[in-house]
Amino acid sequence: MHLINTFLTAVLAVSVVGSPHQPASPPTANVSVLATFPKPVWNENLAIRGNGYILTTRFDKPEVYQVNPGTGERLLVRAFDASVYSGCLGIAEGDTDIFYVISAPPYDDQLTKINGTNTIFRIDMATFETDGQTIVNNATVTKVIDIDAANILNGMTAYDDNYILVADSVQGIVYEVDLAEGRYVAAVEDPKMKATYNTASPATPLGVNGIKMFRSYLYWTNTAGGFVARVPFNSLEGALGNSSIAITDVPLADDFIIRDDAVAFVCQNQVNTLSVAYLDFRPGSGEPSVKASVIAGSLTSTMLAGVSAAEFSRTEGQAYRLYLTTSGAEGKPINGTTTVGSTVSYIDTSVY
Ligand SMILES: *[C@@H]1O[C@H](CO)[C@@H](O)[C@H](O)[C@H]1NC(C)=O
Ligand SMILES: *[C@@H]1O[C@H](CO)[C@@H](O)[C@H](O)[C@H]1NC(C)=O
Ligand SMILES: *[C@@H]1O[C@H](CO)[C@@H](O)[C@H](O)[C@H]1NC(C)=O
Ligand SMILES: *[C@@H]1O[C@H](CO)[C@@H](O)[C@H](O)[C@H]1NC(C)=O
Ligand SMILES: *[C@@H]1O[C@H](CO)[C@@H](O)[C@H](O)[C@H]1NC(C)=O
Description:
- The protein has one domain (28-348): Neuraminidase (6 Propeller).
- Helices cover 1% and strands 43% of the residues.
- The protein has one helix and 28 strands.
- The strands form seven sheets. Strands 16, 17, 18, 19, 20 and 24 form a six-stranded mixed β-sheet that branches.
- It is globular.
- Bound molecules: 2-acetamido-2-deoxy-beta-D-glucopyranose (5 copies).
- One 2-acetamido-2-deoxy-beta-D-glucopyranose (NAG) binds next to loops.
């Protein structure tokens, strides 16, 4: 959806470390804050409208906000029924300016649902009008489907205008939702989607978390596993071969993004860290597993406190700007006690 122009290959090909354009040591990113929410708020995910405005979900309440990319001002687009839903998670654009969002039921401390169901709602932003400060006309919100089989749905991506994919982190399953037919199926259930892939007693119950399609592969983070995996996938046949691990060294990976030139940015929520990895698609490379490098934040820093998801800007002339949501470390307070206001922040990725 976001076409990035030809990359600065001449500059970046200087020192190749196993990948076409990987610098020996990626530089530290400068993090800028666009918007800060008063704590406690947990910004969980985001999607960018064609007009550049940012939609961000809250995990601590079932709400979706729009953030102005120029001023950082925010407006509440939709509050779902808080007596039924505990929060909103993945959000993705299907057809132009039509967004799909997960509203999740109440859950316990193991992120297992207590009652109710995960619902996918459709938010048509075409009817959303503001005078800059206030909402003049609401977005049109309709229920798409309840995913009764799911435990807690987390990441979402649009396969195309007809199908969306959603990740059940606790059960380690990706469901495919047929939007026209109003049906869903368990499309991929891979061992590398399970929290228990590496160990019988993982540090977190979250396996598959963020999901994205890239060059005919379905990619996903495994939070407990600390890696990104992939499998060839299409919407009609599901997984078309064996999965493999694409990126290592991303402990507690949350959501992520892959730029058009195969550079991945991985948000590591509970270690407050953003990492970069250079996927190797060179012919004959065998598309090996690559290591990620930290480019911003740290376990004890508030700079990217609870960084949860990433999406590229769609504003003219800002194709390398990567927006990031943060939870303010509400999921795991820094040094045990410190939380901060959650944010929509950004970095310039043109040097990566
Ligand atoms: C960070 O900002 C400094 C000062 O403006 C600049 O020199 C440096 O190139 C920036 N780093 C990145 C990775 O963009
Ligand atoms: C679901 O469980 C929560 C927490 O125990 C409770 O507050 C809520 O009333 C329950 N909702 C329904 C619909 O049963
Ligand atoms: C938008 O929806 C909210 C919540 O239902 C309602 O309170 C508000 O009046 C609506 N705004 C307009 C302009 O219709
Ligand atoms: C999947 O892995 C198995 C076991 O290693 C192998 O026999 C099979 O050929 C692989 N399939 C594909 C499509 O690569
Ligand atoms: C956490 O503790 C480390 C080590 O004492 C310290 O350097 C860091 O500033 C602390 N972080 C916060 C957010 O207080």
